[in-house]
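A note from the maintainers: we've had questions about how concatenated examples are separated. There is no special marker in the raw files; a new sequence line simply starts the next protein. For clarity in this README we add a label.
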Amino acid sequence: MNNLSLSKNTLLIVDDNPTNLGVIFNVLDEAGLEVLVAQDGESALQKIEYVTPDLILLDIMMPGIDGFETCSRLKSNPSTSEIPIIFMTALGNTDQKVKGLSLGAVDYITKPFQKEEVLARIQVHLELRNLTKDLASKNQLLEEKIEEKTTLEKSLQQLNQELEKRVEDRTSELKQALQTIQQAQLQLIQSEKMSTLGQLVAGVAHEINNPVGFIKGNLTHAETYIQDLLEIVHLYQQQFPSPGAAIATRAEEVDLEYLIQDLPELISSMKVGVERIRQISVSLRTFSRADSTSKVEANLHEGIDSALLILQHRLKANDTRPKIEVVKEYGNLPLVPCYPGQINQVFINIIANAIDALEDSLLKPNLAEIKANPRQITICTEVDPHRNIAMIHIKDNGLGMPEEVCTKIFDYLFTTKPAEKGTGLGLSISHQIVVEKHCGQLSCFSEQGVGTEFIIEIPLA
């Protein structure tokens, strides 16, 4: 029994027999529990008015009010109704047990006491009690968050109503106010999305990293052991070229020569797979890194690579189209002062849009045309020394967009995609991150039948 798992809990023992009290008190005290005692139901009810225990051990047969009546009173009181009660009894009567459970007890302990059984049952119900408390606390916190969100929504709704009343004579002011609200909503969406996604991705990356490190380390040892064993097998083959009929037959059955050849290749393949998982884990951690309140110097190439790795499943070939190639033409970028998590979100949004555009161009594939002009995304980075800015070009050779669409591409909630594929927030949020958060520029150039290019410009100082 782990004393540390019980040490922060308080128990109340109610029993009129001093011997029983002494025995059970010593068991629980040794387990590290804070123990209170009472010798009858009335005194137990009085103690609970001052100290609320985490669990009650209650004897059934007592003078005055018995255990059943005491349990009934505890369960009828809202302040004590949630405290788990375990009856202590020497009775083996099933009716007595059923009655106790029907009154709200959670378990029975039969006298004479078995130390390990007592501690095991107490630990189970204390853990359930603590989990219930934790869940109730989280539910309360969730309700508070919902109430705060409801209040915010009501405030926004009231503001919209007031603005609508003034629309005829204050049109320009209304437009400015709506734009301000939209920016606030974008910031709220971006903050909540990145916070939740960041925690989830960071947690997954952490959980992946531990077993991968374990497997990778063991594979290295396994490879060494296998080489040693194979070396010994070769030595045996040289020293005993005629091992006997039984060994020769078994070696032929398992195809020993093939096994000797294939086993190192198998280990090598496993190491490649583990390294791939490790790279994914690193990319997830890079993508999910939390931003500080001020800018930090970051390697943008790492951010782009992590975005590509996260979107790798969408770049691969599938039943309806060939794979989408990625051409990287990285320049010599210095570390760029930025909010890395937000810039990574921009990379994800723009590359995902490029993939969408290329998939649309492959809905009715012309295999000869695709073979001659493979679908690809080109990513170039460079420094403009005259303006002291870092530039990232993300270009696809998809269908392109007409000019009227290109001019609206960064508008709030504007999208050309069906409802199930787009919300109109991705590029709007990206524009806000680059322009407002980083004092940079995000531009879009598109030509129908040729493709689309996004250019991200971030100041180096």
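[label: protein 2]
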Amino acid sequence: MLKFFFKNFSGFLLVGLLLVCIWLLVHRNSDRASRFTPVKNSALSLWIPFQKSITWLITFPEDTLNAVRELGTLRQELNRLQMENQSLRLDVSNQKSLESDLARLQTVLQIKAKLPRAAKIARIIVRDPSTWNKSFIVDVGSEDGVMADSAVISEQGIVGRVLTVTGKTSRVLLTTDANSSVAGIDQRSGVNGIVQGTGRNQLRLGYVSAGEDIQKDDVIVSSGMGGTFPKGYVLGTVVKKNQSENGLNLDIDLASVVDFASLDYVFILPPIDVYP
């Protein structure tokens, strides 16, 4: 539009001068309005569109600049609101996480109050990434009174035992590790056996004679034999049983009651001989 105006500027200027002359002529002879009324009306009809065009050309750059400024201001305000919204979402997420951690810690403390006085609360700080060696490291060690072969439990049941100890940390061998074994007993029938790890998220109850009363969904708990695990802590539930190839024993698969992936805190029990 501006390019067209400047290209034809001389023509616009001539028309403008002509309209100004007509305008002056009409007003100069305003005392003879009756005689010049048709001329005056014609001049006005020609002048008003031209005046509007001139006004638009004069105000357009300023209006455009103001619109650009307002658009920039709106964009800045939008960016500010978006950042504020992200910050509020983060605050809400952090608040929910803190509330969840607080509720979890309250549960842990309630469980700790029911355990022997010498029991320790331990936080898991490192997990073993290997498939077969099932273990993790906790943030308490010999300086906290932890000893090797101490039983490790959660609110769900038996987790494992302390394998090695340093001054400030301990490595816990899980019940699912292939090198783990715990003396167990069927809570319903009283049948004894040995709960062994398989290297996977599964347990196996062995050394059970064929014909013993073991049923699916039976709960297997620690028997207290062996001197490491106190009696009565849950190990797993019976999933399946089969007779061994020689027909003398039962091969019994157990599902661990502990969700190892969700653990963040565990309890390390004192050796049985120091229980109050």
